[in-house]
What we know:
By secondary structure, the chain is an alpha/beta fold.
Amino acid sequence: MHQVSDGIYRLGTVIHNFYLIAEGGKATVVDAGCSKELPKLEQGLASIGMKRDDVEAIILTHAHGDHIGFAAEANAAGTEVQTSEIEGPIATGDQAGDEAKITQLPLWKLGTWKFLIGLLRVGITNAPRVKSVVTFGDGDALDLPGNPKVVYSPGHTIGHASFYLPERKTLLTGDALATRDLLNHRDGAPQLAPDVFHTNPAQARASLDVLSALDTELVLPGHGSPYHGQIAKTALG
């Protein structure tokens, strides 16, 4: 676990991220990594003198396997899981999701295999659906540590949401944008993932209008290193 800002911590692997926001002895977890990564959260909490019972909720940007991973296990043990109204039925398994198929990816690229193998190691193929979720809407201010504000950013999935912390000028983007080139296995400036990863690539680009309008000093993506500064839509294409 690495501290990226006061009270905000990055967990996961070099391939993907999930985050812990600690405030006032309680915590919010943003995304749930892959299915084998709950011990990482528990160890991270212990390192700052907290335990799983101190987590008020796991809030999901979307229900893909590398973001919903351990949410079902945590939920079964009593942790609240929240997601968008649109994404909720996907998170619970009542509606089918739409993830990129391995056969759609450029399998001739070494970076593609590094990406896939990295996620396979932490259990992306086993992503149980969450039994019970609490849903939120666009613009909702969540009464959770960090006071995250919901910013709908669909395109990667139909109900994708990002989370903005106005007091900290921090934006957690899930897969609405990344700082890692997923197919060439390197970090860089904020960028959209390749179109093959998005349910609706045009809508994903349109969501940049919303994200780039936010006053950001720190951007925390689902894939890649933290980015310090304002998101520039023109730089994202």
